């Protein structure tokens, strides 16, 4: 008798491949698709599936460039799975500590599960040839493969940042560090740093950010001392910098609106700061809005923030008519500043998305401006590094809005700059009539 | 379905020179023969047992009946342990009592790549002779009970696919015949039909 034992090494690769296929067909983001894919692999391999799928997204364009050189002619569209399997094989050889014979053998085995036994020899040959021709293949890469970004995005970066685009691409292909925000209501930054080091974790501070700590190595949040109790949160330095910027421009006791608030990091920062007398957080996505509520609950700050469900660009539906003194608009954007955290952006975004997003951002700016008190400040922010969504967006807004002026301190942060995500913010003040 | 390397090295089988035996594949009519009782547990039988164990571990499988290696004597070897270090030998096994019912997915070294659910009694009592020729009695449940019944069936010329519908069995037979025609490559097993 024999027993059916799912070969977990083959299954891991098969499930990773299915996830890659779904990402390529634009069926959803990695954040959404990964958890269900993880249910289909052995528990001990869930972290590996995560690392591999993130890694593949990060290097997909380069892997494509390498595999293409090894194929005499392109594979048929219906054999996309075989093509991606080759990429997954090369990925293991390049970026994982998997022994090369195991990487090849286990990857080749997947063809059987794809019911494409004819591809066995082909996949095997491509992977073996990759190992033999490593150096000449590397030098045969063109721009998109070299920088592992889609061509349209490289062109955008080149247009917007002719001197920095290569550094931007390189930073996007690195893994982001884990950055924390210490809850200023619970103790000092130094105290928390000591609690971390008592638990064997070391972290460094970031310049000009009084509550940020960057961990030397990422850990699950459950390992952070006092996380459940709300002593600390996970938040990138750039977002902290934006929240801090707004408080600098409005007096203590102001009434704040956080528009497009989910998942609520900046709302929480504002609540912890105790700077505002009243706070409202609004988001259109109900599921993501619930994460704002749970973040505030963990920090025991749910009573100080009014959480609203609605479309921020349609204030008539949710606004009580009382002007806000401060508005934080972290607008929906291309996410091109956070590619290091969400490498699937390179696969999911299309160049045509940018104009649509810029239009949405403009509508949000115009609509929310109506709810701002004369003298009040709106902080416009994105996690994009494209000028169309950032400085051009703000310039156009000021041009078409008579009572708007830009305050000092607008900032474009590049990905990796002082460990931070790529981020843009500009403070806009409404002139007193 | 190769799991070698995951399961680990085969159990030691003494210092005898052992050899791998050829396994008969369904629908070979030789699998339908009724095996005869072992009269003397002698050196011949001990050698057969060692070769069968080696063949089973190599395959890899968790049970093997002599019928499957074209020896038509009532000899069964089994190892259902995780570590593959607990070989069990049953000579002239019979089931003296059985109880309950359990369903489990079964596969067979003679029908590689095919796995189907089969219902059998859940708990069985077995009488058999060990490799030293001593009779023993054993109660089995779970996987071991399923495996013993599966192997005793082999000695009676019966296969687990006989418990399936004629339609299903015919489909499996056709796939196996094609696979054998194509060279019986164990790295290219007949696919299990998709189930939704």
Tell me what the structure shows.
The complex is a heterodimer of chains A (433) and B (196). Chain A is an alpha/beta fold. Chain A has 3 domains: 2-142, N-utilizing Substance Protein B Homolog, Chain A; 177-235, Sun protein, domain 3 (Alpha-Beta Plaits, 2-Layer Sandwich); 237-430, Vaccinia Virus protein VP39 (Rossmann fold, 3-Layer(aba) Sandwich), CATH 3.40.50.150. Chain A has helices at residues 8-24, 30-38, 46-70, 80-95, 100-113, 120-139, 143-147, 151-160, 165-172, 189-198, 237-249, 265-273, 286-298, 345-348, 351-369, 391-400; strands at 179-182, 203-206, 209-215, 232-234, 254-259, 276-283, 305-309, 324-330, 372-382, 404-406, 411-413, 423-430. In chain A, the strands form 2 sheets. In chain A, strands 5, 6, 7, 8, 9, 10, 11 and 12 form an 8-stranded mixed beta sheet that branches. Chain A has a 4-stranded antiparallel beta sheet with strand order 2-3-1-4. With 196 residues, chain B is of the alpha+beta class. Chain B is globular and about 45 Å long. In chain B, the strands form 2 sheets. A 5-stranded antiparallel beta sheet of chain B has the order 1-2-3-6-7. Chain B has a two-stranded antiparallel ribbon with strand order 4-5. Chain B has 3 helices and 7 strands. Chain B has helices at residues 43-58, 142-155, 166-181, and strands at residues 63-65, 75-78, 88-99, 102-108, 111-120, 123-129, 135-140. Classes of the chains: A alpha/beta (433), B alpha+beta (196). Chains A and B meet through loops of A and strand 4 and helix 2 of B.
